[in-house]
Amino acid sequence: MKNVMLICNGGMSTSILANRMNELLQGKYEVAAYGEQDYVDHLEGVDCILIGPQIRYLLPDIQKMVGENIPVESIEPRTYGTMNAAKVIEQIDRMTEK
Questions:
Q1: Is 75 helix (H, G, I), strand (E, B) or coil?
Q2: pLDDT value at 93 more than 90
Q3: Spatial separation of the C-alpha atoms in residues 52 and 42, rounded to whole Å
């Protein structure tokens, strides 16, 4: 099973999205959400990272922090705003196929 991390300002909105995703995934991935200030403490075993659009300006910093082995992308604003868990799962599928 792959481990996916969602990051936003405080981890609140991504927690809602993570819960919806975990319900749909039924064990395909394990999704956890963290705030930008504490994600670094939870990087062990993470296979990919998605960040909320409100902190997409941090994308280069997060990529630098985690290195080249963990893909990092921003969630499209409309997908995030509507909490479209299925579309985010499609994004994870694409990220992990690389």
A1: coil
A2: yes
A3: 17
* 13 band by pLDDT with thresholds 50, 70 and 90: confident
Annotated catalytic residue, options 6, 8, 62, 88: 8
Query: Could you give the percent of the chain with pLDDT greater than 70?
Result: 98
Measured distance CA(12)–CA(73) in Å, rounded = 19
Using a cut of 0.90, tell me whether the model's pTM lies above it: yes
Mapped onto helix, strand or coil, the DSSP state of residue 9 is: coil
Report the pLDDT value the prediction gives residue 98, as an integer from 0 to 100.
62
d(CA 1, CA 40) in angstroms, rounded, equals 21
Topology at the third CATH level for domain 2-97:
Rossmann fold (3.40.50)
Give which of 39, 43, 31, 30 is closest to 7, Cα–Cα.
Answer: 39
48 is annotated as an active-site residue: no
